[in-house]
């Protein structure tokens, strides 16, 4: 059985381990219709010699680099199930199984690379129609995906940074969560939460934010709950949404006020984020300076002498 090495586009370094990660995921326990007959191909129709004469089997091809989001680029992955040319129903059943294995209905799946990098494999569509391959005596169904590293951008705003403070609070409140996108490996047992700005901090032009003792800033953050299964993502979305409703988060001697304004279980955990949180926080230096020493309540006796004083 031949196995052809995929040819990378010029200037594009293909993560070799990614091919094997996708291949092993499709093999799984070996109980799927194609058993362990999953092969790396330069293209689905690259050779007159099929990698297997036993049907069905699955071919994997690595394509070109594609634009990604949050600072990363994705790699095109083509998956071609091949079946005997007897009936299209067999091919349709193979496609259904692959769709379930690759999370087509749930924004993709997370796969762990050998170097610890998590990749989100997302379905893109069919690059071609269903294809009869006469020389291989098979029917092939092209399925195209993009595998993008789940390494989103770190917070870079000058302090005080609501993103950093919310991440710190989440890590302390929920030790099971992973919050550092540079080192995380999301799983159902330990999901990841990515926090980013959807609007940068600003001062509203009203009395609420322009108090006499300090200025208050407002911004909106998006929270992306990242986990392999939709059930775990939905569980943590609801848990965080309930906790962050009217939540006060202390940091550096002051606090910021968080309030969830939207919680959407149908939102993409990659491109949108399931939670929107409005955050309001004071100018730290001005706020601390405005506090001053505590007021004192003084009690006097009948002769005008101090009995006691109580700070309040």
Write the layout of secondary structure elements.
Elements: H1 16-27, E1 38-40, E2 57-67, E3 73-83, H2 88-101, E4 109-112, E5 118-125, E6 131-133, E7 138-140, E8 143-149, H3 162-173, E9 192-202, E10 216-226, H4 230-243, E11 247-251, E12 254-263, E13 275-282, H5 284-291, E14 296-300, E15 306-311
Parallel strand pairs: 1-2
Antiparallel strand pairs: 2-3, 3-7, 3-8, 4-5, 5-8, 6-7, 9-10, 10-13, 11-12, 12-13, 14-15
Mean pLDDT over the residues: 78
Helix/strand/pairing class, anyone? alpha+beta
Poorly predicted residue ranges: 1-16
Number of helices: 5
The major beta sheet can be summarized as: 8 strands, mixed
| Global outline | elongated
Task: Describe it.
- The protein is α+β, with helices and mostly antiparallel strands.
- The protein has 2 domains: 134 residues, STM4215-like (2-Layer Sandwich), CATH 3.30.2000; 130 residues, 2-Layer Sandwich (STM4215-like).
- Helices cover 19% and strands 34% of the residues.
- The strands form 3 sheets. Strands 1, 2, 3, 4, 5, 6, 7 and 8 form an 8-stranded mixed beta sheet that branches. A 5-stranded antiparallel beta sheet has the order 9-10-13-12-11.
- Strand 14 and strand 15 form a beta hairpin.
- 29% of the residues are buried.
- The N terminus is likely disordered.
């Amino acid at each position: 059985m031949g196995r052809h090495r995929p040819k990378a586009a010029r200037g594009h370094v293909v993560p070799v381990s990614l091919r094997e990660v996708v291949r092993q995921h499709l093999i799984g326990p070996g109980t799927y219709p194609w058993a362990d007959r999953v092969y790396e191909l330069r293209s689905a129709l690259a050779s007159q010699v099929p990698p297997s004469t036993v049907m069905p089997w699955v071919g994997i091809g690595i394509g070109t680099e594609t634009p990604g989001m949050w600072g990363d680029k994705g790699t095109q992955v083509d998956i071609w199930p091949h079946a005997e040319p007897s009936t299209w129903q067999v091919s349709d059943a193979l496609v259904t199984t692959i769709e379930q294995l690759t999370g087509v209905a749930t924004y993709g799946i997370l796969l762990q690379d050998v170097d610890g990098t998590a990749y989100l494999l997302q379905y893109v569509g069919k690059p071609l129609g269903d294809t009869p391959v006469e020389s291989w005596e098979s029917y092939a169904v092209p399925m195209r995906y993009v595998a993008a590293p789940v390494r989103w951008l770190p917070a870079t705003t000058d302090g005080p940074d609501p993103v950093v403070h919310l991440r710190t609070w989440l890590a302390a409140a929920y030790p099971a969560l992973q919050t550092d996108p540079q080192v995380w490996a999301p799983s159902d047992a330990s999901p990841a939460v990515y926090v980013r700005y959807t609007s940068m901090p600003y001062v509203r032009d009203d009395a609420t934010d322009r108090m006499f003792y300090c200025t208050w800033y407002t911004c909106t953050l998006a929270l992306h709950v990242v986990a392999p299964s939709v059930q775990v993502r939905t569980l943590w979305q609801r848990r965080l949404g309930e906790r962050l409703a009217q939540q006060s988060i202390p940091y550096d001697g002051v606090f910021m006020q968080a309030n969830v304004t939207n919680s959407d279980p149908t939102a993409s955990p990659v491109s949108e984020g399931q939670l929107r949180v409005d955050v309001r926080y004071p100018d730290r230096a001005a706020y601390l300076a405005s506090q001053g020493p505590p007021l004192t309540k003084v009690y006097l006796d009948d002769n005008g002498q101090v009995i006691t004083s109580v700070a309040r």
